[in-house]
């Protein structure tokens, strides 16, 4: 009695020990017939040990026997069969996993090594792999993590019953078709997909590998420029019909450059980059052709060519500013050529030492202000200083000395008057008067 199991790594044909393990064989055949094992994952693989599957949840803690369809919840697990005793002596032995208390469900494993005697008294053997040893070797070579979960997503695709010796039970329901893979199986997985390779550089030349590394570095740099704000979009590419020309002679003009490069095709725009203030040439230019083929021809023919006693350098433009540049169109719909900007002329500024000619608001006359001005002029006249502010500033030192001298004289006079009054009040002075 045999069952064909199709996996993502290859096919396996398992012969069942129906006479020695009738209940285990019935459980396995009916589960395969109801497509219970389809899309089940090999969730645990240990090299030279076992490859375990049979859990629809992929965690190693799920699964139930076919007897749950016959007897309900109490038939979720069934007791193991011990006799006759069988041993795990070679690769390809198929056994049901002991879920505890010697109860079996749907999970099973296939041995990948020989002489695994310590599995004999714990798990129940019910079959062996007769064809597909190369598939077992592939399973044994898989890389796994610390929890023995393989990095590659390996699953059971289909199960086909080659011979079923058991009678049909009406209590078991069989689906009309195989289950479809879910969204989590296809997308939300951290494992390597079936069509992916573990070694990405397998079958590639050194030049192809170097080119891929260069493209990755360019993509990383573009993402960094987008993060800092130098690029609007990391996936943005420069135009293919724009040529970059550098090492130009400062005397070369836009018209000369356009005439030289126009033999390769139609030119939409030819512009030498100039300084904004002085208008001097910065010795590099951008030439926009009508198509990319003309740009490629100019690149292959004009590099290191002598123009105005200078060897120019030509390359494809890496600037994306042309994608956002405003180009005014003429009446016939073609973009206008940008005129050459002449250096701005310096404007002559007449400097006047006098007051500003702009009108100022006059204050309305008030009697207090007129009286204050009159008193200021009268005091200046009495001091003998002129009313001109410049002359007044010139004689300010003399005025200060005059003020200090007058202040000292006033202090002396006040002291003399004070002494005279004190002397008049004395009693001797009164007696003399009498």
TrEMBL record:
Polar residues bias spans: 318-334
The RRM domain, residue ranges: 241-319
Catalyzed reactions per annotation: [protein]-peptidylproline (omega=180) = [protein]-peptidylproline (omega=0)
GO cellular component terms listed in the entry, alphabetical order: nucleus
Domain of life the protein comes from: Eukaryota
Compartments it resides in: Nucleus
Biased composition (Basic and acidic residues): 372-418
Record has Isomerase as a keyword: yes
Gene3D superfamilies referenced in this protein's UniProt entry, alphabetically: 3.30.70.330, Cyclophilin-like
Compositional bias of kind Basic residues: 352-371, 419-434
EC number(s) per entry: 5.2.1.8
Family as reported in the entry's similarity comment: Belongs to the cyclophilin-type PPIase family. PPIL4 subfamily.
Function comment: PPIases accelerate the folding of proteins. It catalyzes the cis-trans isomerization of proline imidic peptide bonds in oligopeptides.
Name this protein carries in UniProt: Peptidyl-prolyl cis-trans isomerase
Species of the source: Caenorhabditis nigoni
Lineage: Eukaryota, Metazoa, Ecdysozoa, Nematoda, Chromadorea
């Amino acid at each position: 009695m045999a069952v064909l199991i199709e996996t993502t790594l290859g096919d396996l044909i398992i012969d069942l020990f129906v006479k020695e393990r009738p209940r285990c064989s019935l459980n396995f055949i009916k589960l395969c017939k109801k497509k219970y094992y389809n899309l089940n994952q090999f969730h645990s693989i240990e090299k030279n040990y076992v490859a375990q599957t049979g859990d629809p949840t992929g965690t190693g803690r799920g699964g139930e026997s076919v007897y749950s369809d016959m007897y309900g919840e109490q038939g979720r697990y069934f007791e193991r069969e011990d006799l006759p005793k069988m041993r795990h002596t070679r690769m390809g032995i198929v056994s049901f996993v002991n879920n505890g208390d010697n109860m079996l469900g749907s999970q099973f494993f296939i041995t990948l090594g020989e002489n695994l005697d310590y599995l004999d008294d714990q798990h129940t053997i019910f079959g062996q792999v007769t064809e597909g040893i190369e598939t077992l070797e592939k399973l044994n070579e898989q890389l796994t993590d610390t929890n023995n979960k393989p990095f590659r997503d390996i699953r059971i695709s289909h199960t086909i019953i080659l011979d079923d010796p058991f009678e049909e039970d009406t209590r078991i329901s069989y689906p009309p078709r195989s289950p479809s893979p879910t969204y989590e199986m296809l997308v939300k997985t951290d494992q390597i997909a079936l069509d992916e390779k573990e070694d990405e550089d397998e079958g590639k030349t050194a030049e192809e590998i170097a080119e891929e590394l260069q493209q990755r570095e360019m993509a990383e740099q573009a993402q960094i420029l987008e993060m800092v704000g130098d690029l609007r979009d990391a996936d943005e590419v420069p135009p293919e019909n724009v040529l970059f020309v550098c090492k130009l002679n400062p005397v070369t003009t836009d018209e000369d450059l356009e005439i030289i490069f126009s033999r390769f095709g139609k030119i939409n725009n030819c512009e030498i980059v100039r300084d904004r203030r002085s208008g001097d040439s910065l010795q590099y230019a951008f030439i926009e052709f009508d198509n990319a083929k003309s740009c490629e021809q100019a690149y292959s023919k004009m590099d290191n060519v002598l123009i105005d006693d200078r060897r120019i350098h030509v390359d494809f433009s890496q600037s994306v500013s042309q994608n956002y540049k405003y180009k005014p169109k003429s009446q016939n719909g073609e973009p206008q050529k940008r005129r050459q900007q002449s250096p701005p002329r310096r404007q002559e500024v007449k400097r006047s030492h006098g007051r500003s000619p702009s009108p100022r608001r006059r204050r309305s006359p008030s009697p207090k202000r007129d009286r204050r001005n009159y008193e200021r002029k009268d005091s200046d006249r009495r001091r003998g200083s002129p009313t001109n502010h410049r002359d007044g500033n010139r004689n300010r030192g003399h005025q200060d000395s005059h003020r200090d001298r007058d202040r000292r004289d006033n202090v002396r006079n006040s002291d003399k008057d004070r002494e005279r009054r004190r002397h008049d009040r004395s009693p001797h002075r009164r007696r003399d008067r009498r």
